[in-house]
Specification:
Elements: E1 3-12, H1 36-39, H2 50-65, E2 78-83, H3 89-101, H4 118-127, E3 133-137, H5 143-156, E4 162-169, E5 185-193, E6 204-212, H6 219-231, E7 239-244, H7 248-257, E8 263-268, H8 274-285, E9 292-297, E10 302-310
Parallel strand pairs: 2-3, 2-4, 7-8, 7-9
Antiparallel strand pairs: 1-5, 1-6, 4-5, 6-10, 9-10
Helix pairs in contact: 2-4
């Protein structure tokens, strides 16, 4: 099964200074929680969309955390995959209001291109001279896990030696459903192809599988098949972290997952794809332990499972030596 080793971790989240704290995030972040001048010193950052700022800062932290590997990798052997659902929505809402109240000439030329979601990954590639490839995944709720899967496939087929995998979200406009519970910030992972053996430079290994719950088809059919593929080559995961909403799909997955592991925990899933990736960052950053699975799903029927195998006491950051 295709997987990837996580060499570097970076988070930019309200209330979280390091990956292990990624779940200790306030639902209502205080204004000014993110200092762009401190996080991204230099010119040209202050007027970027907020979600782009978060992504650049998280990726920079992850690259620093990964040590020498990124700097020694040729630019054409580096890739980027970014998942997002809502990164551009606040910007597009602002652009719509500007056009209605003034005209299109009032839109800033710096932010205008970011109506295209692909620009967030592209800006990250430009920032770090990445020439291999840039991809953006946008499936509702599962986009972050889809980015992990796309990165793993690219590494497995030899398209890159290292891939930055990220997820970034911004607060939804007030007019959008779920705006009050918006998940905000970014998570970034620097990843290499999984070798199958513990890597002393890695936090652990991620494997991802997805399913789709089609209307009129028993959910267990697709979920059983996906679970079997995810757990076929390792011990039974001890803990399943379910990041789900109250949609019919979310309830079906929660009913199905009960009993699949010794422990099952449920966390509410807000709008966007960041909440599941926060769980991944927290679990990797906390150090070793038995295999665990994070599962998330969208009302549209998308379901994604990510299995984590941690390498205990290996990564330098866990000892404060980097």
């Amino acid at each position: 099964m295709t997987g990837l080793d996580v060499l570097g971790l970076g988070v930019v989240l309200p209330g979280a200074d390091k990956p292990a704290d990624a779940l200790a995030v306030s639902a209502a972040p205080a204004p000014g929680w993110f200092d762009v001048t401190a996080a991204l010193p230099g010119r040209g950052y202050r007027r970027l969309p907020a979600a782009c700022q978060y992504l650049l800062a998280a990726a920079g932290n992850a690259l620093d955390d990964a040590g020498a590997a990124p700097a020694s990798t040729p630019a054409e052997r580096l890739g980027v995959v970014v998942g997002t659902n809502n990164a551009g929505m606040a910007l597009m809402d602002e652009q719509d209001r500007t056009i209605l109240d003034l005209d299109a000439d009032g839109i800033s030329p710096i932010t205008a291109p970011y109506f295209a979601m692909s620009l967030f990954a592209s800006r990250l590639a430009v920032e770090h001279t990445i020439h291999g490839f840039t991809l953006t995944t946008n499936s509702p709720r599962t986009a972050g896990f889809d980015a992990v899967q796309a990165g793993a496939r690219a590494l497995a087929c030899g398209r890159a030696d290292l891939v930055i995998v990220g997820a970034t979200e911004e607060t939804l406009p007030d007019s959008e459903p779920g705006a009050e519970g918006s998940d905000i910030g970014a998570v970034a992972l620097v990843c290499a192809r999984a070798t199958g053996a513990p890597d002393p430079a890695a936090y652990g290994t991620c494997h991802m599988r997805n399913a789709f719950l089609a209307p009129g088809v028993a959910p267990a059919v697709a979920l059983d098949e996906t679970w079997a593929a995810l757990t076929a080559d390792g011990p039974r995961p001890r803990h399943v972290h379910a990041v789900l909403d109250d949609s019919p799909t979310g309830r079906a997955v929660l009913d199905w997952v009960d009993g699949k592991a010794a422990e099952v925990s449920l966390s509410p899933a807000g709008p966007g794809c960041l909440s599941p990736m926060r769980h991944v960052a927290a679990l990797l950053g906390a150090g070793g332990g038995p295999d665990r699975v994070v599962v998330t799903a969208a009302a549209e029927g998308n379901v994604a499972f990510l299995r984590l195998t941690n390498f205990p006491d290996n990564h330098p950051q866990l000892h404060g030596s980097r």
